[in-house]
Design brief:
Blueprint: H1 9-36, H2 38-41, H3 44-69, H4 78-111, H5 116-119, H6 122-143, E1 150-153, E2 158-161, H7 167-200
Antiparallel strand pairs: 1-2
Helix pairs in contact: 1-3, 3-4, 4-6, 4-7
């Protein structure tokens, strides 16, 4: 059996599993609280939070599973590694547009509260969530198409894209590289505008 050279690798993986499991439980708890409360579920923001938590829970689950499988040895079946990678990138692609939409939702709620029900009614919110699901499914399908795969690297504790060179491969790599950064920066700017707006209207 192949073993890890780093003596602290096992301890780090145990911490990774515990921390990932905690995040998974917190996401599930958020979903449970949101779904059980009729008052919260009626609000579009909490529907977005529910969906984002669900996607993040899947992402956490995929990573915890990959770490648990490679806890003792850095050997994982390529097919299983590819499936976990596809699951991870699918949830990733679903989660980040939801985070961006949530930021925009909060912007409308604070700056244009009278238009909130018009822009984010129940039907439009569900359409947005369906589009997020379709985008995630599309991304996951690309990962399973054979043109590129997202594999688990047990030595660096992360998923990585294989080296295929094609439009699909380049698209997925670029999306993975810039997608999250764009969402984080844009959402931060939106929330910053909200804070400034609130401070100016105190």
């Amino acid at each position: 059996m192949v073993n890890y050279e780093n003596p602290f690798h096992y301890n780090f993986f145990v911490f990774y599993i515990i921390f990932g499991s905690i995040l998974l439980v917190l996401n599930l708890q958020t979903m449970l609280v949101t779904r059980r409360s009729k008052c919260l579920w009626a609000l579009s923001a909490y529907r977005l939070i529910f969906f984002s938590s669900a996607a993040d829970a899947v992402n956490c689950g995929a990573q915890v599973a990959a770490v648990a499988i490679t806890l003792r040895t850095p050997v994982i079946h390529p097919t299983l590694s590819s499936l976990l990678g596809a699951l991870s990138v699918t949830s990733y692609a679903m989660e980040y547009p939801t985070i961006f939409v949530l930021a925009f939702n909060r912007f409308i709620a604070v700056v244009f509260p009278k238009k909130m029900d018009l822009i984010f009614d129940e039907k439009k919110t569900m359409i947005i969530l369906i589009l997020c699901c379709l985008f995630g499914a599309f991304t996951g399908a690309l990962c399973l198409s054979g043109e590129i795969r997202l594999m688990w690297d047990p030595y660096n504790s992360k998923f990585y894209f294989t080296n295929e060179s094609s439009f699909t491969a380049n698209f997925l790599r670029a999306m993975n590289l810039y997608y999250g950064e764009f969402v984080y920066i844009t959402s931060f700017i939106i929330y910053l505008i909200i804070v400034v707006f609130l401070l100016c209207n105190v």
